[in-house]
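USER:
Make up one protein:

ASSISTANT:
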Amino acid sequence: GVSLHFRHRVTLTRGTGLPGIVVLDGHSGSRCVDHIAERLPRALQVQVAAKPCLTEAFLREAVMEACAIVDEEFLAWARHHEAMDGSTLLLALVFPEPSPQPPRPAGSCRLLIANVGDSRAVLCQANSQSQLSAVRLSDDHKPNRPDEQERIQALGGVVDLV
């Protein structure tokens, strides 16, 4: 597939910024990846700015709305041009924790992970003996998952697991 990795700092209308990164893994061409790279940062800005405050729940909602908008835009274009391009997406955003509870100090941040498709986020962490372990931060959206199979079929798709 066509892979593109890029970074964006999404500046909000409130004058603050959310550092983040999005990783896209395109397939059947690069047009979907190009569309997401061009449109997602602005769509995310608009959706976050429309929320009353920056909490995890509102940020999660804004990310889902922005992804749905950009997805629908591309799908409309793809239907019109009979394009088969697609992409997985992995998004990580760092945002301020509004009221950190001790022992977390004021000014602490949180990490929001979002994924579409089978792009996976994994965190490597060390324990007190400096032994490393991997912690999964996302769940793959694969058609062999019953909920994913149901979602695909509800949209008129067919899942044929060979």
About this structure: The radius of gyration is 18 Å.
